[in-house]
UniProtKB/TrEMBL annotation:
Pfam family, one: IMPDH
Gene Ontology biological-process annotations: GTP biosynthetic process
Keywords attached to this entry: NAD, Oxidoreductase
GO molecular function per UniProt: IMP dehydrogenase activity
Organism from which the protein derives: Synechococcus elongatus PCC 11802
UniProt signal peptide: none
Coiled-coil region list: none
Gene3D superfamilies: Aldolase class I
All copies of domain IMP dehydrogenase/GMP reductase, residue ranges: 16-297
Record-linked SMART domains: IMPDH
Record-given protein name: GuaB3 family IMP dehydrogenase-related protein
Family, similarity comment: Belongs to the IMPDH/GMPR family.
Amino acid sequence: MDIQLGRGKTVRRAYGIDEIALVPGDRTVDPAVTDTRWTIGGIEREIPILASAMDGVVDVKMAVRLSQLGAIGVINLEGIQTRYEDPEPILDRIASVGPTEFVPLMQELYAVPVQEDLIRKRIAEVKSQGGIAAVSATPAGAAKFGSVVAEAGADLFFIQATVVSTDHIAPEGIEPLDLAAFCQSMPIPVILGNCVTYDVTMKLLKAGAAGILVGIGPGAACTSRGVLGVGIPQATAVSDCAAARDDYERETGRYVPIIADGGLITGGDICKCIACGADAVMIGSPFARAAEAPGRGFHWGMATPSPVLPRGTRIKVGTTGTLEQILRGPAQLDDGTHNFLGALKTSMGTLGAQTLKEMQQVSVVIAPSLLTEGKVYQKAQQLGMGK
């Protein structure tokens, strides 16, 4: 429903994940027989969760372990892992500085050029250990390193920017990356993002994307919404982009997964995103809390090192358990941040959804009080949902 913001502007209401709730249907399903499998670029995974391409979240070790556990970890090809032969001392420095020294340090550390040999090395290290080699770059990075990634034998290539589109106006003398031509030329599946609207999703699908990343600014360490004022809350964004996916499938017969990227902390968040139409989710800060994560208990945004306009910060997330406990359990915390797979399967069973496609069809209601109703003691004592 359109709302008149003022005489010169009509708007519509958009909803975030915290404002909705999922409604049980007329049947239930034993969680043991729910099926959470999904496919991206011809690769089938048991768990519809990807770890964000952030330097505090995924390195070679994390990518391999995530693959072993049934998920996917994406390595940032323009980060610490490809700028330094030995990233460990660099990560130690990032974790050790104070808040006021952090951004200048990041700008200094990320000014070191990306090395093509290290791109090849990181991909080879993941594959030699049996992991899925999923990597990410900006459009500019993709134009520069795409052939290196292909030659190195990566399995999936993510092109990510705060906002990506097929229609980009560049300064005179600079040729923008032709996403359609790039997707067609690459011998591996290319996933494009980020976007939040039906129209842009449809254009990216027609450009040949093997997956679409949805989300602008909701990430725990991202400040784009404050710096730029740009974004659409995830529940509405995912629903709009999923509608484009479904219309595109009806037109072409090709199904392309939608991945909700950012702003998801608990198992309930993941369940609600899939109910809004996502095929999978990409999360960062929950995995940054794993004992195996490279961030030493810290998490920072991909645009934090920008030399002119940082759009991310470093947050302290601590360490709460192993990657296996966070992803598959058993949970040792009561706030929904452990055992994401168990949460998804239990939610599906409660809602009567046996597959992810059925989960996408469950009823959703607007429920701003969902996380606060009756939780006065948890909030007062900072327990469970009150943390």
